[in-house]
Amino acid sequence: MYALQYHFVTVTKYRADILTDERLERVAEVAHEIAEDFEADIKNVDGGTDHVHILFTTKPTTDLTKFINSLKGVTSRRIRQEYPEVKQTLEDAFWQPGYFLVTTGQVSIDVLMDYVENQ
User: Is 52:96 a contact under the CB 8 Å cutoff?
Assistant: First the structure.
């Protein structure tokens, strides 16, 4: 048995205020699609105009680097394709190169979701 929970945060390139509610919803949809391929389970996606928080669980065998790179790469590509005005602002990439990823320990997912929603 295992309980691997993670809190992932990434910011838009140049901290651009470009994530509308609609775009954040689209990031969440794409994240769920990608998670299926990695046998990960997205618990919550939230954020602000310049960042996103994703809470997820995985199996011990999940390659986290590949998963995060896929999350960032595919969401970047899709958002820039589907919203041409974003591509004009952020031509080469949607996300900053770095990110924050931390295990959440034994904190319940409900407590984490409340934390993320109230950021």
Answer: no
Q: What are the C-alpha distances in Å from 62 to residues 5, 12, 35, 55, 71?
A: 12, 25, 10, 15, 13
Mean pLDDT of 22-39: 97
Q: What is the CATH number of the domain that holds 37?
A: 3.30.70.1290
Q: Are 14 and 118 in contact, with CB atoms under 8 Å apart?
A: no
| AA letter at 11 | V
CA atoms within 13 A on the CB side of 43: 19
Task: Give residue-wise pLDDT tens across range 15-28.
Answer: 999 999 999 999 99
How far apart (Å, rounded) are the C-alpha atoms in residues 48 and 75? 16
| Domain, as residue range, for 46 | 4-118
Residue 117 has φ and ψ, to the nearest 5°, of -65, -25
Q: Provide the domain count of the chain.
A: 1
Residues 47-98: tens digit of each pLDDT: 999 999 999 999 999 999 999 999 999 999 999 999 999 888 888 889 999 9
